[in-house]
Amino acid sequence: MTVSPHFFLYLAVMAGVTYLIRLLPLLFVRKRIKNRFIRSFLYYVPYAVLSAMAFPAIFFATGNIISGVLAAAVCITLGLFKRGLVTVAAGGALTVLISELVIMLI
Fold first, then answer.
1. 8-61: pLDDT as tens digits
2. Which of helix, strand or coil describes residue 64?
3. Relative orientation angle of helices 36-60 and 65-80, to the nearest 10 degrees
4. Contact at 8 Å (CB) between 105 and 69?
5. Rounded to two decimals, what is the model's pTM?
6. How would you classify residue 83: left for phi > 0, otherwise alpha for psi between -120 and 50, otherwise beta?
């Protein structure tokens, strides 16, 4: 396996950007943030990023996009009913299993 000549440049840029994103707030924000809008924004950022990364993968991680759509619907429904993370994940996995079995029979 050969390494692209630009690999280490890309790696350095990625490491620099990742480091700066974590370093800059530590350098410039010395006091506790009191602004309600900024605090609310910072509170929801991890959830938004996780959702943006995980949600598209739900549809394409299964053998068939239909099972992914069904699992997403079940997970969203269970989440709206305030079920725990383990229950939501198990419900989604069980939905994929059952829907894949049904699709194979059809």
1. 999 999 999 888 888 888 888 888 888 899 889 888 988 888 888 888 888 988
2. coil
3. 150
4. no
5. 0.62
6. beta
